[in-house]
Amino acid sequence: MSSTLLPDYNGGGIVNLMQSIATACGGTDAHYPQLAALSSMQLARARHVVLMVIDGLGHRTLARHPAHLHLQTHQIGSMTSVFPSTTASAITTFMTGLAPAQHGLTGWHMHLDEIDQTLAILPLTPRAGPARALPGQLPPRLFDHRSLFQTLDRESWVVAPQSIAGSPFNAWHSRGAQGMAYGSLAGMFTGVVDLVQENTSPRYIYAYYPDVDACSHQFGTDSRQAQRALAEFDRHFGELLRQLRGSNTWLLVTADHGFIDSPGRRVIDLEDHPQLAALLLRPLCGERRVAYCYVAPGNRPAFEAYVRSHFGRACHLYPSQQLIADGWFGPPPYHPRLSSRVGDYTLVLKDNWTIKDWLPGEKRYTMLGVHGGTSSNEMRVPLIALRV
């Protein structure tokens, strides 16, 4: 199993790539160091900047499969994701330029004191019970950050799948940009080509592709389905290079996180541990690989003892405040609700272990491919970059 890797916010992570892009595109906010491998001065020499994010394309996945020649040929290195290494946290970083310490999105399931409810944060739907507000009403109540596009001094575009392009989360985080929805991968690439080739002022274009992630979750990281999704992207990317020749464009491709596989025998189900579940104030939050636990002060000694005696080989146990102080979510200043969104304890799963609880009425499903943790396979993503 791959070694532990913590996020790099000091010049080697996706946060730093976004700082380079923001500065190159006229942004004046300087929250973090720029990416050591690609500075704003380099990016600013081109007319357009295009960032394509392949959800779930870990550095290992690209390296293990040499069929993807266009992407591999132009890979200049790798970066770390954020913590946790998951879409909710990392895509928000791509769309805001902020680390989780500042944007405050800490995983798929988040307990939000503002509405006293646990939501799946991307669809903005409650984990249990009736919705207390429509998803469209929630962004201004839950998100106090600006989008990256609002901070840039250039025309920006967000190219997203039709399934999410109009969602409240995506619309909120696309403020300041114009939007283009696509129905197929070919449509995404056609849209990017059209936006670059139009005779306009310089543009920043952000495009998002979800299929590698979806296939990896269902079928596994090395499955034919996941490889087919990546191979199709690579083929279109090769054609994109030809079509944009002479356009003076920086083409950047990276990912929000990588993947590992976790078979059923490596899943801790809280139904098998009722003593532990009884010590929790609310259901688990976060991810299968990084679980936030809310525990009343009087129950904390029993909680710590149970985790250490029963789960010692499967997870690390941390006080959540320790992870904040040690910089896992990013440097200060911290989001005012960061502490309340990561609970009292964080379980960081080892090797390929995961942990899950199920609520009454919740639809059950299996998930072979997982992410969110601190293994290098989950944390390290490739950086493909070339000036066309």
Give a verbal description of the structure.
The chain has 388 residues and is an alpha/beta fold. The chain folds into 2 domains: 14-105 and 145-261 and 374-387, Alkaline Phosphatase, subunit A (3-Layer(aba) Sandwich); 265-370, Gyrase A, domain 2 (2-Layer Sandwich), CATH 3.30.1360. Helices cover 32% and strands 21% of the residues. It is built from 17 helices and 18 strands. It has helices at 14-24, 40-43, 59-64, 69-73, 87-96, 100-103, 139-142, 162-165, 168-173, 185-197, 211-219, 224-243, 274-277, 300-311, 320-325, 338-341, 376-379; strands spanning 48-54, 75-80, 109-112, 117-120, 125-126, 155-161, 178-182, 203-209, 249-254, 260-261, 267-269, 285-286, 290-293, 315-319, 345-349, 354-356, 369-370, 380-387. Helix 11 runs antiparallel to helix 12 (224-243). The two termini are 38 Å apart.
